[in-house]
Amino acid sequence: MPVHKPAGMTSFSVVSRLRRWSGVKKIGHCGTLDPAASGLLILLTAQATRRQSHFMGLEKEYLAQIVLGLETDTWDRDGKIIAERPVLKICRGDLEKLLRERFLGEFDQNPPAYSAIKHEGIPNYRRARRGEVVPTRPRRVTVLEIEVRDFSPPEIGLRLVCSSGFYVRSLAHDIGESLGCGAMLNGLVRTRIGDHRLDDAWRLEDLERILTTRELSRATCPN
């Protein structure tokens, strides 16, 4: 089931609501979206959860808003600002060249310290919140398409298609490092997973109305 996750909610919260509304306990999602991000979340129920790895491996498309000159500890707008730097004059052509040469194709990417990746059974974001040094290893990722959709420095808008395991927060951070001014992810929408598109996804308010109405009808239906 394709669902439109709103910003400000965790992926697990979406799953919890669907479990409560539907009464189905075995529900899982195929690829976490950060709380600040919105967009397509694929949910699987019952026996379909066996296909989770298939959906997890599909390519994904995102629309990303990045702010240059600001760095946070989480590499997105939800974190604490740790640095502010001037944004040197940059033209759209320079940015497009950087994206083609540095961030298109296959390359190694360091995931953020604040991530759900586990080390010795503990999610890295928990270690980061405790002030611990978070061990991170580069991951081999692939960007199939990347383009500039909006160029209004210090804000830039990108569209990208990438492999599973890709962190758009890392992309924002690495672009900032490459430009020498720092950057953070200010907004993210996942628009596609494989052939599944956000335009075809259910909104939570519609699912709540349909599922809770159905349950109410069952409860009040005479024997």
Give the second-level CATH assignment, the architecture of the largest domain.
Answer: 2-Layer Sandwich
Q: What structural category arises from helix and sheet content?
A: alpha+beta
Regarding quaternary structure, what we see is single chain
Task: Tell me the total number of β-strands.
Answer: 14
Radius of gyration: 19 Å
Total number of helices: 6
- Shape category: globular
CATH class of the largest domain: Alpha Beta
User: If you consult CATH, what is the topology of the largest domain?
Assistant: Pseudouridine synthase
Mean pLDDT over the full residue set: 89
Distance between the termini: 32 Å
* Main sheet summary: 10 strands, mixed
Low-confidence stretches: 216-223
What is the strand content? 25-35%
CATH H-level homologous superfamily name of the largest domain: Pseudouridine synthase
Provide the domain count.
2
Tell me what you see in this structure.
- It is a single chain.
- With 223 residues, this protein is an alpha+beta fold.
- It folds into 2 domains: 1-57 and 198-223, Pseudouridine synthase; 59-193, 2-Layer Sandwich (Pseudouridine synthase), CATH 3.30.2350.
- It has helices spanning 11-22, 52-56, 92-102, 124-129, 168-179, 204-220; strands spanning 2-5, 27-29, 38-45, 60-68, 70-72, 81-84, 105-109, 118-119, 122-123, 139-152, 155-162, 183-193, 196-197, 202-203.
- Strands 1, 2, 3, 4, 7, 10, 11, 12, 13 and 14 form a 10-stranded mixed beta sheet that branches.
- The longest helix has 17 residues, at 204-220.
- It is globular.
